[in-house]
Amino acid sequence: MNIIVGLITGMISGATPILLAALGGAFTFYAGIFNIAMEGMMLMAAFFAVLGSFLFHSWLVGLLFAIAGAMILALIFIFFSVTLNTDEFVTGIALNLFALGSTTYLLRQIFKVKGVFTSKLIDSIPNIHFPLIEKIPLLGPVVSGRNLIVYLAVIATIFCYYLVFKTRFGLRLRAAGYNPNSLDSSGVRTSRMRIQSLLLCAVFCGLAGAFLSLGYVTLFAENMTAGRGWISLAAIILVDGHPYGIALISLLFGFFDGLGLFLQGYGVSSQFTSMVPYIATLGALYVYARRNRERERNAL
Amino acid sequence: MDDFISLEHMVKVYPPRVLAVDNVSVGFQKGEIHSIVGENGAGKSTLMKLLYGLVPFDSGVVKINGAAVHFRKPGDAIAMGIGMVHQEIELISQYTVWENVVLGAEPVRGGIGGTLDSARAIELVRRKIDEFQFNLDPSAQVERISVAALQKVEILKLLYRNVSVLILDEPTSVLTPQEIPQLFAELKRLRDKDTTILFISHRLDEVLELSDRITVMRKGKKIATVAASETNKEALAQMMVGRQVIFTSKRTPHPRGDRVFEAKGLSVTRHDGLKLLDNVSFSVHAGEIVGIAGVEGNGQFELVNSVMGLAAPTSGSITVNGGGITKLSILERRKLISFVPQDRGKMGASLPASILDNAIMTHHRLEPRFSAWRGLVLNYRNARAFTDTLAKRFSVQMASRQSPFRSLSGGNQQKLILGREFLLSTPFFLMDQPTRGLDVGSIEYVHGEILSMREANRAVLLISADLEELFLIADRILVMHRGRIVADLVAEQTNIEEVGRYMLEGKITA
Amino acid sequence: MTRRILSGVLGVVIALVVGAIIMLIEGYEPLATYGALAQFSLGGIGPLTTTLKNSVPLVLTGLSAAIAFASGPVNLGQPGQLVFGALAATLGGLYISLPPVLEIPLLLLLAIAGGALWSGLAGLMKQAFGMSEFIVTLMLNMIADFFTAWVIAYPLMDRKAFSPMTPPIARSGWMPDIGPLNSSVLLMLAAVVVMWFVFQRWRAGYEWRITGQNSLFARLGGCDVRGNFMAVMLVTGALAGLAGGLVVMGGPHRFLKGLGANYAWDGIMIAIMANNGLVETLIYGVFVAAIQTGALGMELITNVPSEIAQVLQAVLVLVIVATREYAAVVFDRLAARRQARERAA
């Protein structure tokens, strides 16, 4: 019984950052931007979350710092990609490098350490308990007592769906990706929608990064996102950006993430258990490619 | 009468140095149908895009009712009651008709991001449809409706925004001859309600029939504005091209030889069971030009893909010189088939590559003189000589062999592709819209070359959406309709109206 | 051509100015910092040869990325292919001992094979199942990283060492020094020349280039697009593998922990700066190596942390690319405006 609860809570923790980053990326995906900067945005956010929380001993400030950190990258992305028309792929790669380099540099510069920074002064994001639900066996310990960001992620998924498919904003956002010329000649500037989508992406990646450094653990480590941004990109591609699909895929990755930790308890060396989410991504890609190929074969 | 809209001394240079609009001044009156005519590249579309705020201009003044205005984006123009329908239909195929119509001016109920009020949007769109008798379903998915209906949606989109000036860029190029009168009737009805219509076209018969006044442009300059009642086709053509144009065929009788190409029972079925190509059988003989007429999207794409080997047909066979090619690789097919695609930049050339690199494509595999060391290394000396011969023989104007292909003008690009394919010694020639987007001089050149291939006893299959072109050079005309060949006509024994009927209805009804 | 050099130089200058502004904000002396950077990377035979030696993996992975990007395949797997090449060479060097004339070529071949194996795996997934190589190579990077971390922590661990690493490889497999210069530099230069020749003069290179620019055109022209894809994957993997082998054989002579992480995105970054040009890759590769090499010395005398080199690199990529692309637009617009003014007058 405890094993199952453990696996499920592990799955939820593993899924949350990927889900949030992928939801953010979904906005840019719909807006027609090839955005691969989620990794960098998350990393910046994770660092600034720790910085804010450390300086002000408040997780709320940490959260705001996280969003601001991701926002810095989004603004640079906007300046280069939307204003100067620099290639999106190049901008994304450079920004990921920039995030990696500057967080490493700032870690050394501000906290005078290399590798990892942790401190008692860092206020982590609280877990939320629902006293009534908690009593329910099996369901209770899973639903209650999770980190605040986890609940935010659930709300964000629904919000994302509503925004993309039910609102004027969403209609224009998707139009920017489907046919930018059509949107422009309808009197709405595509570049504006793209800018807005990048800002939204930064907010979501900010939450994801804050969860990593103030929720999942309470520390900042160099390159602590460890490819989660890329996995979230894969998740977006696999379900064509649909928020509910992203949620499902993220849970799947979360499951494998949790499974890895679980296997570690059984003596499998950590190097192999750490591979599990990436192998799972390859598996998901395989299924996606097969489905696509069948569709194509039928199409012609 | 004062002009409602006037454009004064408009100049537009596309970077780096394409002078698209060269000091043009022209005025439009309220409630007139005013056509802008000119060849491809004459600047007529650009001029309208300057007015619409889609393309920024370098100098000039736009005045409405005598007051200078400056539109920075189409939204500004729409707010002033000016709307434009582009040549390429730019609707969002994933959206419904109403979603396309209201996009950018959506009725909302408030809330974060503005919750769409879809019931009201549908109602508003339906009301506009009824008002202008457009016969459309607001909830239809755009990817499932006909081209003529798409155009109506584009117009509706503007009427929904209450525009009083409609700019239409070559709206008839995607319509069959039978759909055009209906569009014209709708346009005249709009004019009678005091809408100003600016109509861009290069089809002179249509322009004469529809317009009140006509402005002729050539090479970015305005040549003249004339009343439609005071001019005729020949005079317009002369102003447009700058010299006399012959509207008759230069085709002389030529005996046809053996059968070279044959398609038998060719079918392509989509995953949902729709037959995109339905049991197509025909043959092309040596020394014969066979034209395929049809509205785009009636199976031409699938036919080309099947012949070239980009996609395998569901059933049926293709033979060239008696040998089946359906199982062959593309390279093996290219020993038998020369191919001029409809989209130069997408299928016919690599734009950033040098002219030389583009010239030797396919030859580099088929001709031993282009390689050394058993095909490992390319022989650039021979490649250079070949490029020069090709450029000379097909009069390609180029700065140097090493300049990028994209630096060539459209006509020169097409000449190079045509020459490259012509010099492959193949028995069969497939051409997909080889003159699309070219100016009159280049079109005449391409037609001359196609006819000389016929003289050289090669079998030519010419797919074209331009009926006049087919009647100028084809010996036989096949009509494609919904994936099937519905007519096989000898050019001399048919006429444009009959072919148009087949294109639209797939059969002749009495 | 001159315009290309001009916008490249302009990009570097702007990037250095941006870097200087960052240093000023951080309270450092930009000129002194850059001076130290140059002094420890280019000032004299010692620093210069060190820079050149450090440039070997950068240039080779850059070459790998440049050839891949210019030919179509989005091979982002240089880090994984590099560690696999390094691992293969290390394995050979641990278990096989031959005279240097045989040992060195053997280890190099093993490194090449190791890299090609890992990129070939990605290529195969694309060919057989249609899985996009873009994400596959990224995932394989992570997997390769964990796998080699395991190998040096368990089966091949040097029990005498404090952190995970293998024992040193056979002495005969060390890349010899020629005077002050390590011979791996010569191999790198040879690789650039050979790849240039393949890319510009071979029929395969011609097809790779055209396929990278417009694969549909190449396919219709009769090029073997599928075969070329696999060939490019293998060749670019081999180059990254060679880089890994040379890192081991020219440097620490063993597989150290974190060997791959040091070069993670550098090759891709250099290829992007070089706009996938092969000669440009060599130039930018040495340039980046100079920054990285100089940064370590700079830290000693200016107390600017060496990590600033990483920030500087990212700024360089962005600014160089943006300058190049934007400069072209500006040049064209200026020409257009000049002509427009003439017509309006």
UniProtKB/TrEMBL annotation, chain A:
Chief place where the protein resides: membrane
Record localization: Cell membrane
Record's bilayer topology term: Multi-pass membrane protein
One GO MF term attached to the UniProt entry: transmembrane transporter activity
Example of a GO cellular component annotation carried by this entry: plasma membrane
Cited InterPro entries: ABC_transp_permease
Any Pfam family the entry gives: BPD_transp_2
Membrane-traversing stretches: 7-30, 36-56, 63-83, 89-107, 148-165, 195-219, 268-289
Keywords, in A-Z order: Cell membrane, Membrane, Transmembrane, Transmembrane helix
PANTHER family membership: GUANOSINE ABC TRANSPORTER PERMEASE PROTEIN NUPQ, SUGAR ABC TRANSPORTER INTEGRAL MEMBRANE PROTEIN-RELATED
Stated name of the protein: Putative ABC transporter permease protein
Organism: uncultured spirochete
Organism placement in taxonomy: Bacteria, Pseudomonadati, Spirochaetota, Spirochaetia, Spirochaetales
Automatic annotation (TrEMBL), chain C:
The UniProt record lists the keyword ATP-binding: no
Major location category of this protein: membrane
Gene source species: uncultured spirochete
Subcellular location: Cell membrane
Pfam families: BPD_transp_2
A GO MF term: transmembrane transporter activity
Entry GO terms, CC: plasma membrane
Top-level taxonomic group: Bacteria
TM region(s), chain numbering: 5-25, 31-49, 56-74, 80-98, 105-122, 134-157, 178-199, 229-251, 263-291, 311-331
Swiss-Prot/TrEMBL keywords: Cell membrane, Membrane, Transmembrane, Transmembrane helix
The protein, known as: Putative ABC transporter permease protein
Bilayer disposition of the protein: Multi-pass membrane protein
